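Below is how a single chain appears once it has passed through the pipeline. First comes the sequence as given, then the structure the pipeline wrote out for it. We keep one example in the README because the format questions we get most often are answered faster by looking than by reading.
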Amino acid sequence: MKLARLIWRNAIRNRRRTILTIASIAISIFLIGTLQAVLTSLYSTGNPSAQGDLRVVVHRSTSITQPLPEYYKQRIESVPGVKYVVGVQWFGGQYIDASNFFANFAADSENFLKVYDDYQVPADEASAWENERTAALVGKKLMEKYHWKIGQTITLKGTIFPINPELTIRAVYTDPSDSSQEQALYFHWDYFNELLGEANTVGTFTVKVDDAQDVPRVMDAIDAMFRNTAAETKTETEQAFALSFVSMLGNVRLLLTAISAAVVFTILLVAGNTMAMSIRERTGEVAVLKTLGFRRNMILTLLLGESVAIALLGGILGGVGAKLIYAFIVATYSSAKFMGFFLALLIAWLVGAGAWMLFAGPAARGGMLKVIRLIATIVGGLIGFAVGFGFYNAIGYITNLGGFLGHFTVTMEAVGLCLAIATLVGIVSGLWPALRASRISIAEALRFVG
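Resulting structure:
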């Protein structure tokens, strides 16, 4: 206990330097936590849902942008092991203007809820959607975002297709296993095909298989059926199909890992410089400690413990802070956007306090420096508020779009990684200065002037 108290007192003896170092490490660790959240969100897109392991997706082998003939559905249904087939066409329409973008599809309503049985829809609403030509099925989170009501009529402006379907919202679905999927709209493919002039094409077919063990055989059978035709197919599991969109972005994992490595290297430079300065200033004190009987290992523990304590505190603030802040944004953005004001106030206070600390000291108590300190604090607080409010709205907007970042969260594994990186930074940055100081002789330490 006494050792820990001594380590802490040494760590905060120069409070301004310690606070700024902790803040630098915290911001860097926050960035690493954010990058890990992006990776988690991107690759969780391919995680199968409760029934997703029974679904496969059939698309054109040459490109997913090229459609398939609608009559393929009947042929796919004839494959042994196939239970249900539904045709789905990405529509990509806009609601009012380009800023109101969300996923919207034309789908075969007959078997849709049998194939996507993760979606829960009240029986009366499901019946209304299936039996009305212009009806729309909408996710709960999308309904909340635009404050839509059952029975409301909306118009989607076509951006890919030259049509503007008018739709009436008749049903709302929820997905208990993954609420991020509740941000899409589905309307009848028959209505879409009619408006388009009977093109009779479908973007993809989603197939529900009877048994998971039959999935590989069914996939091979479907592709073999259409081999050497004008529209050959490629059949993938739902998970593989989702991850194929991530692969279009390139090697995202390598890129984000490289950025994280650069951030860690920067933290090492900052923390290493801080510890070198701190230990060099106390070289004389090391001589006194040795004179009082402190052994080399005890001095090494004191100095290295100080480095680890500072880095770990920064890691806790950055890692845990990232988890709490992103969870707060995701939870409040769609239902209580005004809460962003409080996050902005918190960031404004932190930035203002940091600006105030920069001008700490006796010289800041009077004269022009006092005025400069006050102005810097106010300006810093205003900048912090603007950045915090903008950050809240930007992250909230992106995560509520769904898609690749629909699962945006900092996991406990990511927090653990952040703390491990912070601990490693503390050890590496403080090890050499602490070793050098613990090994210096009493006479040399007393003669040191630095």
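The chain has a mean pLDDT of 84.

See the next section for the split statistics.
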